[in-house]
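Go through the following before class.
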Amino acid sequence: MIGQRGLVALALAAGALAGILYYAGARRTTVIVAARDLDATHALAVDDLTTRELPTDAIPADAVTELAKAVGRTPRAPLWRGQLLIATALADFPAAFHTGLTLPSGLRAVALPVSAAQAVGGALVPGARVDVLAVPLLGRAPAGRTTELLAQSALVLDVRAETGAPYGATAGRTGLVTAERIGSVVVAIAPTEELRFADRIATSTFVLAAISAG
């Protein structure tokens, strides 16, 4: 049987363990989070950010914990208010588009004028892959031209409204802005296709067919 001293030692050990577990669970670390909804086109300023105390064991290893490591850098994608900043999700330079996407090296960005009906009913989002079909316009395209497949699996860099503003609800410094109608879809194309696309923009309408992610 355990003697009185053994029971006391066991109780002390259990108390110490409970204290250690409580301390570990109660520990907090200061992290940097977005103070407001932010787009991905501006370098972060001090007033864009705030701090929050979170349990240490719930924080990702690359979470930003110092303002100095975030100020002046640009998020690779839009941030929502209260979102934790991750070091690998910050870039030294602004993205080419508010979506945080950048134009792949060696390619060109071109805006194709389309309506929602020609862009998968308005369901296209940046990052999607599409086939680009050009349908000749009567009276503009040369006689005998038929519908063409201009590009396959082209990367959608952005979707814009008729006004040129980002399509849909987007995060910005002045709050959420909603654009109602699609005006164009920006896609990445090969440099050798620039002239052909420029001609088809003047002589054709476009239909974009979404590609399965699988």
